[in-house]
Amino acid sequence: MKQVTFHQLKVFEVTARRGSFTRAAEELFLTQPTVSIQMKQLTKAVGLPLFEQVGKRLYLTEAGRALLSTCQDIFERLDQFEMTVSDLQGLQQGQLRLSVVTTAKYVIPRLLGPFCQQYPGIDVALIVTNHENILERLKENLDDLYIPSQVPEMMDVFSQPFLENPLVVIASRHHPLAGTGDIPLERLNNESFIMREPGSGTRQAVEQLFDAHNISIRVRLELGSNEAIKQAVAGGLGISVLSRHCMALEGQTGQIAILNVEGFPIPRHWHIVHPKGKHLSVVAQTFFKYLQTEGKRVLQETALL
Ligand code: PGA
Questions:
Q1: Which of 63, 94, 154, 243 sits CB 3.0–4.6 Å from 86 for a disulfide?
Q2: Contact 226 CB / ligand 1 (< 6 Å)
Q3: Quick one: 32 and 154 in the same domain?
Q4: Reported confidence tier of residue 144, pLDDT bands at 50, 70, 90
Q5: CATH number of the domain that 25 lies in?
Q6: Is the minimum distance from the CB of 165 to ligand 1 under 6 angstroms?
């Protein structure tokens, strides 16, 4: 075990969590053969197989499970040590790990700018992903702070509403409903709909509203990206529902119209969340406060609100 490197343990932890060399390589920005070689070397050093492959997925062997829990202990102790060091250094140096839902990518990077200017020694790792993946990351305690649009109900978390994130119905500006007022919700029955992927919080909110009103929509296309949905809508493929924040720059091109549909906008808020009892680093505490006190003002100044 003396030849084992910290990097190999990190690669192992990600591979075990993601269940595949390819997905681990994606998360770590490495190539798949690099991950596979690292795991071969680690297996050799341990002297027992760490994974077994069933179908496309890798499963941990008993030795693998024991190594994973050892790695988690090591990483947690190192995190605590890092936190102690950055607490000692105050805000001069440190890391901030954030996971935000896709809709928040329109505002959080904007807010990080002034924050990082104020604290130039802080490095930021920002993950942008859908609601379900945020919950997974929260469960695994991978980041300092999380920004979803719904507070997870099944987990013990501390949460604070941050900003409004209303969902609106969008269509091409040439769509017959564009510019008309008071569109009944049932009118959407006949429309081709472009829907986000399963696991998306936007999709969940839309399905809840339609289910509550017994509306069954015709999903013509499923897309995992708000930007791709905007292009498909502008191209006349159908209508969709997105956060109003996704439309921030659309006013300039004028290709997409927001429809005035009954029941919309669906009111939602982004929340700042972390597991209850988590010891936040000074950096994370400062960013939390910054979002609450300065967030709205900075976005208003940059005309994003
Ligand atoms: P989504 O997140 O990417 O999961 O749809 C958006 C949201 O919940 O605001």
A1: 94
A2: no
A3: no
A4: very high
A5: 1.10.10.10
A6: yes
With tokens 């954030």, the residue in question is: 98
Question: Which residues have a Cβ under 8 Å from the Cβ of 41 and sit 6 or more positions away?
Answer: 3, 8
**Do 33 and 150 fall into the same domain?**
no
Is residue 101 within 8 A of residue 127, CB to CB? The reply is no
In the chain, the number of structural domains is 3
Q: Within a domain: residue 209?
A: yes
For residue 293, the one-letter residue type is T
CA 66 – ligand 1 centroid, Å:
35
pLDDT tens digits, 49-87: 999 998 888 999 999 999 999 999 999 899 888 878 877
Say whether pLDDT at 248 is over 80: no
* Structural domain boundaries enclosing 141: 90-164+269-301
State the distance from the centre of ligand 1 to the C-alpha of 101, rounded, in angstroms.
5
Q: Which atom of ligand 1 is nearest to the CA of 148?
A: 8
- Please indicate whether residue 250 or residue 175 has the higher confidence score (pLDDT): 175
For the Cβ of 201 lying below 6 angstroms from any atom of ligand 1, the answer is yes
Q: Do 85 and 121 form a contact (C-beta atoms < 8 A)?
A: no
Q: What's the pTM value of the predicted model, to 2 decimals?
A: 0.77
pLDDT tier, 249 (very low <50, low <70, confident <90, very high otherwise): low
pLDDT over threshold 70, residue 11: yes
